[in-house]
Amino acid sequence: MHGNNTSKELEKEKIRNRYKGVSPELLEVIPAEERVDILQDDRDKRVGVYVRVSTDDPRQTSSFELQRNHYTDLVDRYPNWHLYRIYADEGISGTSLKHRKSFIKMIEDCKQHKLDLIVTKSVSRFARNIYDCIGYIRMLAALKPPVGVFFETEGLYTLRDDSEMALTFTASFAQEESRTRSSAMNLSYEMRFRRGIFMLPKLLGYDKDEDGNLVVNENEAQTVRLIFFMFLYGYTPQEIADELTKLQLETKKGNVVWSPSSVIAILQNERHCGDVLAHKTWTPSYLDHKAVKNDGKKPQYRQLDHHEGIISRDDFFAAQQLLAHSMTGRTGMLPHLHVIDKGPLKGFVVVNPRWTGFDAAEYIKAASSVSKKEAADDSVVLEKGTLDLRGFSVVRGQFFESPNKCTVKLSYEKINFYSYCLQCMNSCKYVELLLDPLRKLLVVRASHKGERTAIDWCTFDGKKNHPRYIIGRAYLPVFYEIMNWPVDREHLIQGECRGNGNDSILVFDLKDAEAVIRQYAEKEDPEPDEEECPPEEIARFIAMPAAWASSFGSDYYQQDPIPVSDQGWDIQEKGRALPRNDPFKATEPQELKRQITSIVSDIKEGVSNGQ
Fold this sequence. Notes:
Blueprint: H1 2-18, E1 45-53, H2 61-77, E2 81-90, H3 101-111, E3 117-120, H4 123-126, H5 130-141, E4 148-151, E5 156-157, H6 163-194, E6 206-208, E7 214-216, H7 218-233, H8 237-246, H9 260-268, E8 276-278, E9 281-282, E10 292-293, E11 301-303, H10 313-324, E12 338-339, E13 349-350, H11 360-368, E14 393-395, E15 406-410, E16 414-417, H12 419-424, E17 430-436, E18 441-447, E19 455-456, E20 458-460, E21 465-467, E22 470-471, H13 476-483, E23 490-498, E24 505-509, E25 514-520, E26 537-543, E27 553-555, E28 576-577, H14 589-608
Parallel strand pairs: 1-2, 1-3, 3-4
Antiparallel strand pairs: 4-5, 6-7, 8-11, 9-10, 12-13, 12-28, 13-17, 14-27, 15-16, 15-23, 16-22, 17-18, 17-19, 18-24, 20-21, 23-24, 23-25, 25-26
């Protein structure tokens, strides 16, 4: 123990002797370069000047030019400063770098060693975002050779050792000032909207009088009417844009080339029917200024009949429905449900594969609207000598192994028919789906490309057709709602083929759906930098309907859900349209067509007359 203490003391003594150092006379001190203030440094510097004004309002042009002139004079004042370029962003906020193209160009020039110094008015002009400000300052200082930034108002030069703390405080104040201004501006908007004082930017179809009120510009209003009438009649935004361009009609900004987005913007603007809705969008963050749709996060303010409308409110609402369900294509105005009212498919509703506006209640109402005969007596009358099969069942096909089965797989978003279904339908390219929501039956019948309800259900590989997955987001949720199925579960249904050749149909009883049950391995929480993988499936089995526990199949004399009707086997019977329950009355198709023809004729006549 005593030896250990002695060893430690000797080690400590060595350290003390080493840190006594040497005599100053033995050292030569080489002095450091004297740090020269940036304004007194006489070394040549390539200078980039950054200027910015916060808005592109023409009244800010004077501020922009004053900054440009001021810094041109400032650079000329120092003989060793050589102006490389003035980088100017006009009409761009300082809290985000997303659209500050000149700023980004200036940083790239620094990386390419084209600049030695950046001069700007203040920290708030450079960036009002602390993260961006400090991040870019450090990046510029790390370049070889480093690039400094001189903030004239604060007198800060970023290559000084003591500049970062002062810069951090100043940038924090600039960011907080931006937040305060943003909050004040939003509050100002709220106060205006609450009193019915709306912001009314320029809009095609309207001018403003001396009091700022919207008044109809009849020449422009003609274009607005044409857009709405064409859209309601069935034209797509692209087709409307092409027609407007062909007619050389001008946008509010004077452009004669139209795009689908500009057409949709007009269709979505409620001011065209005389109303005003404020706060349709809002900006969650003052740092990125990204506007998002107001889905209830902020109050909205609507004033009906604020000014004279160009189109009716009913036509406007009809257009919104079409826009909300934009997969309808060119099939006239608002679709109707069609129900078959005679023949073997009586009571079936034609499924519209591209319109999401119909719900389960509408399908049920459509099927119920078709009068049905009273159910026949269950007693079976047998002819003499006929085999009596009462009490016997036709065993379900699911209990037999066979490669030739008409099977369909349904999920909440996709539907897939197996290969044998195509063979039963003579490999036709297009089919139509029919649903009886009361008896829970699904029927597939042949169709053709021109039908608005046609579905392309197969692909051709050069030799034969193969089934393809069909996206069914417009109607499969209705199936799931009617059947009360869990949305996260797939279902397999075996059906049967009825008829022959081109008169064939596939019939599926949705009540006999087998559920696909999947089990997945429990997932471990991923590491922060690790990409999350999909769960691993460890088991898959088929769950049969509970009703199958007490029977092997359907009663022999009640097995046919699609009997031949008195009219014969006409399975191509068209459905009759049911009236819509819309709370508005839009312009009828015949009147739309007349209006479109009249407006186009007037426009062409005006062009020929040089108007």
